[in-house]
């Protein structure tokens, strides 16, 4: 992801969090530390973003789960590109793959998918038509499917790994939130130099991915926000919890 793409992604996260909170946040400036200067009703504050995952992250290497998801998606994007080169109709497919995609020996099986799709002529069927097929390894004596593919003629194209989207939801991610706050606390003096005394932290987890299936329980919590004026936890794309100093959390949307 390029720096500009990353910035656009961060803006999307901020905009969706603001929509859930019911506030009008206006981007005043894109900077590096913190990520944004925001205005709200003529008040300005610095906003830093950080993403957390369903594991304690290695400070240098980041999230192992996220790394595997990214590896899977790069492989899927590659075969999607190959399919689109071979299909003159550029048929949009909603395509889901079940299997251990990051494994290197799976690559030759993934490479078969574009040709199989072309041979099935899915472009000739109406939207909503689905084809399901399995791909086997020729190395194994007992034929067990390594990949299972669900391909639907759709309105828009979307290819992804089922394993990266399906998983258990952690309803008590407070340790991950605390870690994220601690990782950013030492930079507060630097943030204040750029954007003033009101420094806020937006922590988000992408619940659409297995690595980000984090959501706080409904119990009100207080939390040491370690020098930040406000900390937001965004369980993307559904809810935002606000932590303020010496106060119980507030959850939006309220239920």
Please explain how this structure is put together.
With 255 residues, the protein is α/β, with parallel strands linked by helices. It is 29% helix and 27% strand. The protein has helices at residues 3-21, 64-86, 107-110, 113-120, 174-185, 188-195, and strands at residues 26-30, 36-40, 43-51, 93-98, 130-136, 145-153, 158-161, 199-206, 230-236, 239-244, 250-252.
List key phrases describing it.
elongated; alpha/beta; 6 helices; 255 residues; seven-stranded mixed β-sheet; four-stranded mixed β-sheet
Q: Work out the helicity level.
A: 25-40%
Biggest sheet, in brief? 7 strands, mixed
Instruction: Order the strands across the largest sheet as they lie in space.
Output: 1-2-3-8-9-10-11
Helix and strand sequence = HEEEHEHHEEEHHEEEE
Q: Name the shape in a single word.
A: elongated
Low-pLDDT segments: none
Distance between the termini: 36 Å
Mean pLDDT across residues:
91
Strand content: 25-35%
- Number of beta-strand segments: 11
Radius of gyration: 22 Å
Count of helical stretches = 6
Q: Strand pairing plus helix content: what structural class?
A: alpha/beta
